[in-house]
Write a structure and sequence with these properties.
heterodimer; A: mainly beta; seven-stranded mixed beta sheet; globular
Chain lengths: 112, 111
């Protein structure tokens, strides 16, 4: 099983809302990632967790707050987003950092 | 920081053709390079991972090669099919910390 599950698949939120994206894997992977992808652009790294600890934050605005409650679960908490934050948010996991990565199907986020 | 480029940006071929997609990276001291496929609006599907000690990997009709010294990787697709139509992305590791993606090649295989 090489499945990374992301929920919800689609999310529409207002600029004053608070919402969360969820990512789950049961492959025993100890590295998990959040990427942001705008239309017709490649994915851009946001955060890397290694063994449940944040190891990379690519200067992401504080309105995005990641959380890794356990080795199988990764959340992305969203607050006071802007319309330009609308994008496809992709979660990935790998056995450890920089090994083969497996991606979820993404959450399509629209900020209105 | 690692930078990755891909050519061509788009490619349209008739069904049955063999084709080559190119990926270049600036830092040759990579650990891994991974090729992905992405269908419109969907997530990424891993196709092949090449470790730095390997020169190529094969999976079905796909063959990926890696030349670290020249900073290049190629993805060879044999006997292309309409179902191969997608965007193909290569990703090279950035000092062993994470993968950096190229802009992708948008492939259309015409029936």
């Amino acid at each position: 099983d090489t499945e990374v599950t992301q929920t919800p698949k689609h999310l529409v939120m207002g600029m004053t809302n608070k919402k969360s994206l969820k990512c789950e894997q049961h492959m025993g992977h100890r590295a998990m990632y959040w990427y942001k992808q705008k239309a017709k652009k490649p994915p851009e790294l946001m955060f890397v967790y290694s063994y449940e600890k944040l190891s990379i934050n690519e200067s992401v605005p504080s309105r995005f707050s990641p959380e890794c409650p356990n080795s199988s679960l990764l959340n992305l908490h969203l607050h006071a987003l802007q319309p330009e934050d609308s994008a496809l948010y992709l979660c990935a996991s790998s056995h450890r950092v920089n090994t083969e990565a497996f991606f979820g199907q993404g959450t399509r986020l629209t900020v209105v | 920081k690692q930078e990755v480029t891909q050519i061509p940006a788009a490619l349209s071929v008739p069904e049955g053709e063999n084709l080559v997609l190119n990926c270049s990276f600036t830092d040759s001291a990579i650990y891994n390079l991974q090729w992905f496929r992405q269908d419109p609006g969907k997530g990424l599907t891993s196709l092949l991972l090449i470790q730095s000690s390997q020169r190529e990997q094969t999976s079905g009709r796909l063959n990926a090669s890696l030349d670290k010294s020249s900073g290049r990787s190629t993805l060879y697709i044999a006997a292309s099919q309409p179902g191969d139509s997608a965007t193909y992305l290569c990703a090279a590791d950035n000092y062993g910390q994470n993968f950096v993606f190229g802009p992708g090649t948008r492939l259309s295989v015409l029936p």
